[in-house]
Amino acid sequence: MARRFFVGGNWKMNGTKESLEELITTLNTADLDDQTEVVCAAPSIYLDFVRSLLDPRIMVAAQNCYKVAKGAFTGEISPAMIQDCGADWVILGHSERRHVFGESDELIGQKCS
């Protein structure tokens, strides 16, 4: 079976609702190849907003998550919360999380469990 081509865009800590609406309009009107999987990683605060406007053919990803489903972890987001917003992907182990926030291989592994 042939593998599908994958294109992902990480929006990092950029965008406002207004600017994201413009970007989403551009993506929604683009001529996308059905054999290409397209995923947009939006800031967590905008996951639900992006999913509600983005063409369902384009998947949504979170940019990070924590290692547990729930609890007293201020500012974190769980995989269940990500799914509840309609996102099916999450970026883990990004170089910025490792270098800026000091995330270790061990912690990233725990997030995958």
From TrEMBL:
Pfam family for this entry, one: TIM
UniProt entry tagged with the keyword Metal-binding: no
GO terms under biological process: gluconeogenesis; glyceraldehyde-3-phosphate biosynthetic process; glycerol catabolic process; glycolytic process
GO molecular function: methylglyoxal synthase activity; triose-phosphate isomerase activity
Pathway: Carbohydrate degradation; glycolysis; D-glyceraldehyde 3-phosphate from glycerone phosphate: step 1/1; Carbohydrate biosynthesis; gluconeogenesis
Entries under InterPro entries matching the protein: Aldolase_TIM, TIM_sf, Triosephosphate_isomerase
GO cellular component: cytosol
Domain of life: Eukaryota
Statement: the UniProt record of this protein carries the keyword Isomerase: yes
Enzyme Commission designation: 5.3.1.1
Reaction equation(s) it catalyzes: D-glyceraldehyde 3-phosphate = dihydroxyacetone phosphate; dihydroxyacetone phosphate = methylglyoxal + phosphate
Keyword list, A-Z: Gluconeogenesis, Glycolysis, Isomerase
Family listed: Belongs to the triosephosphate isomerase family.
Quaternary structure, from the entry: Homodimer.
The protein's role, per its UniProt record: Triosephosphate isomerase is an extremely efficient metabolic enzyme that catalyzes the interconversion between dihydroxyacetone phosphate (DHAP) and D-glyceraldehyde-3-phosphate (G3P) in glycolysis and gluconeogenesis. It is also responsible for the non-negligible production of methylglyoxal a reactive cytotoxic side-product that modifies and can alter proteins, DNA and lipids.
Name used for this protein in its record: Triosephosphate isomerase
Gene that encodes it: TPI1_2
